[in-house]
Amino acid sequence: MNADALAALASEIAAAVPGAAQTLAFGEITLQVAPAEIVATLTALRDHPVLRFTTLIDICGADYPERAQRFDVVYHLLSMRRNARVRVKLQTGEMQPVPTTIGVYPASNWFEREAFDMYGILFSDHPDLRRMLTDYGFSGHPLRKDFPLTGYVEVRYDDEQKRVVYEPVKLQQEFRSFDYLSPWEGARAARPLPGDEKAKTP
Fold this sequence. Notes:
Layout (H helix, E strand, L loop, with lengths): L2 H14 L4 E5 L2 E5 L5 H10 L7 E9 L7 E9 L4 E9 L5 E2 L8 H12 L3 E2 L28 E6 L4 E6 L14 H4 L16
């Protein structure tokens, strides 16, 4: 989409959703809205006779633990009539639910469950908000920045008990500390390596 077409689309979106803060960067349009406005915003974008953002591509999250509202919830919409995309973002906290958008896009059901499972983002009035990617009894939310790289438990099948057992994580060795130097610079060879003839000798 060229710059003129993108500017025209941005002005049409601004007219359809006048309360949303709009940014235009890298050839993409992003709307920032409050959580309470998300249902009305998505409905307006879907039902607008010219825009027709009728397809929900994805709902994803982003974690910023240093913020009071630590999560971004991002909705990616597609208008097949205009061959255009728009991103709608909102911020929310750990205990502040976002209104579900299943009534606007039925595909929100699984996307919201995924965001809840991976980040712990809550969605009010969701008919079945439960985990879908992690195991039963899983502790924590794996895509949060404060989730440990090793997790909390490990799973294995026990031949004696004939069942799957959960155990605390046991690392066979500690994490290694790398200095990230080039091995060619750090190695001490008995004689100069080919190409090192110009190197200063100690």
